[in-house]
Write a structure and sequence with these properties.
With 342 residues, the chain is of the alpha/beta class. It has 11 helices and 11 strands. Helix 7 (171-181) packs parallel to helix 8 (201-208).
């Protein structure tokens, strides 16, 4: 995994590609197993076609597509990915089940030629730890135990694990978990998600840069409310995430990094950090850092009267949701090319 190289001054080269989480309706992950799922979803094969069309240099594949495949199907998938010249990343989350392992993740990752397992650690979103009560401590302990137990299995298979700031953990906590688990455990930097836990993105990268192993390119605009703010998806580069500044901080530590375009969820995330109870379970956060984060969000804010809802939230027809997701992707690619990242 990437280490500290203080002498580097050249910019990081980002191998920018795609994950499916900004295209969840298009590919069939939105409403998985429910009547609202897309009846015309393109699935994993269509997702790979989209990635190829935008010139992806990395490809992040969801475990729900991969775990059911047999050895023959996985081998065929590996050959298809190899023909694209993409780095491949296996992606899943912990379930919290007792005795959980990463045996399936390791098996599939090796079969498709992945070198990295991207892992989110909890089902918590919107920074809403307090809603879990004492169960939050159980979630943290389960993540800690699983990482300590499974990191050696991954290392023996030549794999790194990267744990994500998935609107649940801050940088300090992820660093603690990664350090405790071993040298092959790093961090996925989601560029928009620090806002969901009251952390400034630049402060996050300052703390975590040497341990970052993969990047999720995400951006948000905020709509302020009496309780806090809604984080509303937008094309990468149109929102509050300070992408160029983050890249500057990463540069001394990494010659190159994979980075997946992820245009955020189809549901706005309501971060209720103006309510005292929301902070239950969090370590202290410096007021000046929180103020900086709020300032970034305020500068690109939506008016409180604006309709923040996506077509999914408005229960629009399926073709309108697909068009919305594709427009966000195309705008993100345009913006990233303007930055020189693609």
């Amino acid at each position: 995994m990437g280490g500290t190289v203080a002498q580097r001054s050249a910019p990081t080269t980002f191998r920018v590609g795609l994950n499916p989480y900004g295209l969840t309706y298009t590919v069939g992950l939105q409403g998985w197993g429910t009547p609202r799922a897309n009846p015309n979803a393109v699935g994993a094969d269509g997702f790979i076609d989209i990635a190829r069309a935008v010139g992806a240099r990395c490809l992040e594949l969801d475990s729900r597509w991969l775990l059911p495949l047999d050895a023959t199907a996985l081998s065929a998938l590996r050959d298809r990915i190899a023909s694209l010249g993409c780095a491949v990343i296996y992606s899943q989350g912990l379930t919290g089940e007792p005795g959980e392992t990463l045996a399936g993740a390791v098996r599939v990752s090796r079969a498709i030629g992945a070198e990295l397992i991207r892992l989110h650690l909890s089902p918590v979103l919107e920074g809403a730890r307090a809603a879990r009560g004492s169960g939050w401590r159980d979630i943290v302990e389960h993540a800690r135990r699983t990482l300590v137990a499974e990191a050696p299995r991954a290392a023996d298979a030549g794999l790194d694990i990267a744990i994500e700031d998935h609107q649940d953990f801050g940088s300090e906590e992820l660093l603690g978990l990664a350090t405790n688990a071993g040298p092959n455990v790093g961090i996925v930097l989601d560029t928009g998600n620090p806002f969901a836990v009251g952390e400034d993105p630049i402060a996050f990268v300052d703390r975590a840069a040497p341990r970052v192993r993969h990047v999720h390119l995400k951006d948000y605009r905020a709509q302020f409310t009496a309780e806090g703010y809604r984080l509303v998806r937008c094309p990468i580069g149109d929102g509050s995430a300070p992408l160029a500044e983050m890249a500057t901080i990463l540069a001394p530590h990494h010659a190159s990094l994979t980075a997946s375009i992820e245009c955020g969820a189809l549901e706005a995330r309501h971060i209720r950090l103006f309510t005292p109870g929301w902070w239950t379970g969090y370590p202290p956060r410096d007021a000046s850092e929180l103020g900086t984060a709020l300032g970034r969000l305020y500068a690109k804010r939506l008016d409180e009267r604006d309709d923040y809802r996506t077509p999914w939230e408005r229960d629009a027809p399926g073709d309108a949701i697909v068009a919305y997701e594709r427009n966000d992707l195309d705008s993100s690619v345009h913006n990233l090319r303007a930055l020189g990242w693609m």
